[in-house]
Predict the structure of Imidazole glycerol phosphate synthase subunit HisH.
Amino acid sequence: MIAIVDYGMGNLRSVEKGIAKAGFAAVVTREPEVVAGAAGVILPGVGAFADAMANLKSTGLLDALHRVLSQGKPFLGICLGMQLLFEVSEEWGETPGLGYFKGRVRRLPGGVKVPHMGWNEVEFSGPSPLFAGIPDRTHFYFVHSYYVDPAEKEIVLAETAYGVRFAAAVGRGKVFGVQFHPEKSSTWGLKILGNFGRLVAECL
């Protein structure tokens, strides 16, 4: 079972429907024990970084996520969920994140409309099971004002450009993050959710 983490800040039902369309079972939950015991975890997110961390702490989900990450279970962070995997965000001051990946979350530069909303071409940095069967330079749907700046460039799986070139996807082991929304990215987005579901199934 894949747990979709409900901490009050995500497109939960869209992600759940996307996983179902890809042929896999998922449950939307805010129960820490369910998250910690799941075979795979998806952390979606829309909104402010500080609010997200506060919600994770107040619901007891923060410890559960640390347990899942430390065990190396399949994990997918989407949009804000990807940003939360990093050490710190510069949104409204500085707020510590989960710290799984080294690096910072920075605001998109001036000179472009923020938030960034729309389809952008994504260039893969190399092969990844998350992008299996998906052509390089496929377009995915983005909605965000901040981007991740990884300290370890080897975790960058894909890049895009909007005012600045930045990581569109990161990963190490079975832990992944995507800045775009696969649940809003039509056929190829569903393919990503399916690839993640297969990764979970292979680990059972």
About this structure: Residues 182 and 188 are 7 Å apart (CA to CA).
